[in-house]
Amino acid sequence: MIDDDKHVRELYHSEFSEIGHEVLTVPDGCELIAKLEEFNPDLIVLDIKSGDLEGLQLLQKIRGFAPELPIVVCSAYDFSRWNIGRPTLDWCVVKSFDLTRLKAKVERALKAKTPFAFANGRFAKA
Fold first, then answer.
1. CATH fold group of domain 6-125
2. pTM of the predicted model, to two decimals?
């Protein structure tokens, strides 16, 4: 789980560990990329800034390392402002301290194991 806010990372770790998930939290994409090979996650929850090209570049980088890895994008920003395809919104959730929706998306993504590919500035099912 990637989030630059330490308190959010602690909340995610506590809540998802409590329901049986092994959780690794990192503050940024650089640390995530460094840990990807050693940790080998089943899924990534990614806080991405609204329309931030850096965040979209991180998604591309993750796809380069792990093309089949599901990624749930969790952001406090309006997804409609992003240049992403409609199917991707299935794996997006608006950030909240009530983790009910995030937990549901994580469970759905883990069951589906269907990643989204990023190409030409848009997402589509891989």
1. Rossmann fold (3.40.50)
2. 0.78
